[in-house]
Amino acid sequence: xxxxxxxxxxxxxxxxxxxxxxxxxxxxxxxxxxxxxxxxxxxxxxxxxxxxxxxxxxxxxxxxxxxxxxxxxxxxxxxxxxxxxxxxxxxxxxxxxxxxxxxxxxxxxxxxxxxxxxxxxxxxxxxxxxxxxxxxxxxxxxxxxxxxxxxxxxxxxxxxxxxxxxxxxxxxxxxxxxxxxxxxxxxxxxxxxxxxxxxxxxxxxxxxxxxxxxxxxxxxxxxxxxxxxxxxxxxxxxxxxxxxxxxxxxxxxxxxxxxxxxxxxxxxxxxx
Length: 272
Fold this sequence. Notes:
Layout: E1 18-22, H1 29-46, E2 50-53, H2 72-86, E3 90-93, H3 97-104, E4 109-112, H4 120-127, E5 132-136, H5 146-155, E6 161-165, E7 168-169, E8 175-176, H6 181-186, E9 191-194, E10 200-201, E11 210-211, H7 216-225, E12 230-236, E13 250-251, H8 255-270
Parallel strand pairs: 1-2, 1-12, 2-3, 3-4, 4-5, 5-6, 6-9, 9-12, 12-13
Antiparallel strand pairs: 7-8, 10-11
């Protein structure tokens, strides 16, 4: 795993999975710093390379009255402060071509949402910033199809592409992770398993997405056993009152035990 595009990332020689973790959305400065401080403490202890995750805005919402953000520049400046305070890289997702250059001024990794990963102009705009581009596999796409998304990044002159699997639609209200796709996608780029979004239960009649946080460790363990390069976990100190995706986020209090177990599994896998 080559991290040359992320000079702030730590513990790269630990032969561990890397971690993208944080709240679904940036709700304010205090909450972002509080979550980052806790995750940095845990990942330093366990020697896990860490990238702080937070969406500066939420564009894909079920209802028009759903939370979308606190203001683009305000949220991006909070991400920048997290990076400066803890000397860690950060990732956020973008939704429009104009977002790419704007967000690239503040964060280290630009994430393309799953519903938008086939949007060539958006992927190319992200790639041309020179930042790492994290391509989320569409819920409707095969693992093999992600080769073309990676090629778009590389053909734009950017060698830094990741793939993130966040599950595949199974019926209308469930997601399934097909672990056969991990070795396939790793042929194209470093591959991350988005544990928490893989446990979403979308299309609820209420217009609020559900989830199965009780299955987080089950999915994460299977990812580590199957040699994912990284894990993506949304976490919050108060998921029930989080403004976005609270139903499938991991409570921050449970993160250390989960990661400790996963690091132990990784050490076993490394010995095979």
